[in-house]
Amino acid sequence: MTERREPSTLESAGVMFGLALVSAGLVALSLWTASGVKQIGPTSFETEFAQPGWGCSALLLVIPIFLAAWRHTRFMALMAAAALIPQFIGAGLVIDRTVAAGWGDGMTGFAWILPLGFTPFFFGAALIGAEVGKAYRRPAVTRFPPPPA
């Protein structure tokens, strides 16, 4: 049985770029669809600087991360990092928006919860995908019966 071909570095870089692009798109959608500051009463306000539904949908990136790490085993950590970096940038932008709007208090640090929560899931999916990919690429062991005497 022949061993399966390992993809090129350029192909792996393209997949990493694609993962980062999808992740950045989800961050942009989350920031774009946020309602901002709304007055809901005479003295009460509701603030939303990132729409949480789109932010949580980034957890679905574990599927493409798994598949990318399965195919590109040498770059498993970079696949997870490529999807994770835009999430951390998005959290920084949420904090920047909150402070710029004058709503900055100690609670703004909670914007980091989602990206920090995604980290073990993304790297776990990459690790499992790479292990499955390595096992898939190993040549099959064939055992023949001993020749007749």
Report on this model:
Keywords: Membrane, Transmembrane, Transmembrane helix. The chain crosses the membrane at residues 12-32, 52-70, 77-95, 107-128. By secondary structure, the chain is mostly helical. The protein has one domain. It contains five helices and two strands. It has helices at 9-32, 52-56, 62-71, 76-100, 113-137; strands at 36-39, 45-48. Helix 1 (9-32) runs parallel beside helix 4 (76-100).
Radius of gyration, in Å, reads 22 Å
Distance between the terminal alpha carbons, to the nearest Å? 27 Å
Report the uncertain regions: none
**What is the share of helical residues?**
55-70%
For the residues shown, what is the average pLDDT?
87
Strand content: 5-15%
Structural category is mainly alpha
Strand order of the largest sheet: 1-2
Transmembrane segments: 12-32, 52-70, 77-95, 107-128
Keywords: Membrane, Transmembrane, Transmembrane helix
Topology:
Blueprint (H helix, E strand, L loop, with lengths): L8 H24 L3 E4 L5 E4 L3 H5 L5 H10 L4 H25 L12 H25 L12
Antiparallel strand pairs: 1-2
Helix pairs in contact: 1-4, 3-4, 3-5, 4-5
Keywords: Membrane, Transmembrane, Transmembrane helix
Annotation keywords:
transmembrane helix, 5% strand, 149 residues, transmembrane, membrane, two-stranded antiparallel ribbon, 5 helices
The gist of it:
This protein is mainly α and 149 residues long. Helix content is 60%, strand content 5%.
